[in-house]
Amino acid sequence: MNASTDNGLLSPRLAVAVFLVFAGTYFLSALVRAIAATLSPTLSAEMSLTPGDLGLLAGGYFFGFALTQLPMGRWLDHHGPKRVVLAFLAMAVAGCVAFALAGSFVGLLAARVLTGMGLSACLMAPLTGFRRWLSPAAQLRANSWMLMTGSMGMVASTLPVQWLLPVIGWRGLFWALAALFVLAIAVLAWSVPAWKPAAGVPAPAAGGPDAGYAHIWRHPYFRTMVPVGFINYGGMVAVQALWAGPWMVNVAGYTPEQAAAGLFAINLSMLLAFWTWGVVNPHLARRGIRPESLIGWGLPLSLAVIVAIAWLGPRAGWGLWALFCVGSTFVSLSQPAVALALPPQAAGRALSAYNLVIFGGVFMLQWGIGLAIDALSVFGWSEPDRYRGAVGLFALCCVGAYAVFWRGWRRIERDRAATLRA
């Protein structure tokens, strides 16, 4: 397929087609990522899983994600999105098949890790391509709308999955997902442009100072975004993909069907939030409103809500969890901002390094919240109180991460003002 115009940007028609193809694949990956919350009552009953086991199983997906991020960033910059995503999706097919066949917790966990590895390129590959194929304003919109399609996948992981379970079972569901990923491989192979060296942009020399990750980790902007990426962004995904569901069942007293409906509403709220960001981001960029400023002023909403959830306990239902997740979407602006802060030839490594931060946070928080729920039993607390205590600890981490971000953000603002005065 003819990839681009003379300046390297995709034509509008081709840009839409490429976006839709990647978005469809990311929809499926987000469905698989979030499905643990809906399946948690079934898997807990069938496999006798504790909250710690459940957190580890859900977090195994993100552990697989984290394992691949750094090498994947190099491969994306060198080989391009198409070749990388096709190779990784083959692992995802194997992971879904292994999950469908698993007969023990260990088998489920191994399959979950493999699936996470295979789906780890479904967002990074398109974002790397968009860094070269789209204008900066279009990148912000495309990033938000990719996340919107991820929310669509999470919506599909709730009530639709709950309806399908009595019909085909959770094993049949994973066989169907494996077949859909095979179809995605075929469509991506046909439609995504080949990767060509960027005009006028030299590739980093092998072994040179810009070939690895050191200059990315040292970049002041990158380091400013690390705390909120790990704790606040990672925590939002951990809650959305797992812990909101068990909270509704074990603390708020929902039935599994009511919890699935609550998760449906939470993910629908996220979908609308990301759609809104996609609409307004180009306008905000043209007005010179920077992502770090939006994060600085908007993220405190989520901090107030998570403290309220821990305080209210059984009175905190899906509505407050939806408000927490929507308030946390401010930090999603950090992903394209990090890519734009570094050179185009380092886009894959910058995005993958930051994604490692985010999904490392997801893994640690999904597992950590489960461990905290188990550990607080030493005080003789009831199950609802143990959940409240674990969420309270998570809230403290969120506030601390935001405080560290605030300090770095104000330093960036001071440096920018000093440069303008000079």
TrEMBL record:
It is a multi-pass membrane protein. This is Major facilitator superfamily transporter. GO terms for molecular function: transmembrane transporter activity. The lineage of its organism: Bacteria, Pseudomonadati, Pseudomonadota, Betaproteobacteria, Burkholderiales. Residues 18-422 form the Major facilitator superfamily (MFS) profile domain. Keywords: Cell membrane, Membrane, Transmembrane, Transmembrane helix. GO terms for cellular component: plasma membrane. It comes from the Bacteria. Its main location: membrane. It is found in: Cell membrane. It holds the Pfam family MFS_1. The chain crosses the membrane at residues 12-34, 54-72, 84-103, 109-130, 142-161, 173-192, 230-249, 261-282, 294-312, 318-342, 354-381, 387-406.
